[in-house]
Design brief:
The chain has 3 helices and 4 strands, in the order βαββαβα. With 106 residues, it is of the alpha+beta class. It has one domain: Alpha-Beta Plaits, CATH 3.30.70. It has a 4-stranded antiparallel beta sheet with strand order 2-3-1-4. The protein is elongated.
């Protein structure tokens, strides 16, 4: 097994998050996508401060797939510059990590 990452991405609504999540899981780029509804995002964009509802997607995948996953999320996303960030998984239940490895072999 190689390294694993958790990938965070926000979307403007649950429908968009689910559409992207289903696509990348079906394509074997992520083992799963958790969708957290109704988060509140406060951010600056083009010199204006926004305070808006969003949805958070949390993907689990192999580190080696992050580049492809990032490109695919960006292609499917409605935002001009979507949040797509990865954090290394330092440790985890071996059986869970083996499952991620198995289902993302594609």
């Amino acid at each position: 097994m190689d390294g694993f990452v958790i990938v965070f991405s926000t979307a403007q609504n649950e429908e968009e998050a689910a559409r992207i999540g289903k696509a990348v899981v079906a394509e074997g780029l992520a083992a799963c996508c958790n969708i957290v509804p109704r988060i509140r995002s406060i951010y600056t964009w083009k010199e204006k401060v926004f305070d808006e509802p969003e949805v958070l997607s949390i993907y689990k995948t192999r580190g080696a797939l992050f580049g492809r996953l990032k490109d695919r999320i960006k292609a499917l996303h409605g935002y001009e510059v979507p949040e797509i960030i990865a954090v290394d998984i330092k440790d985890g239940l071996p059986e869970y990590l083996a499952w991620i490895d198995e289902v993302t072999k594609g």
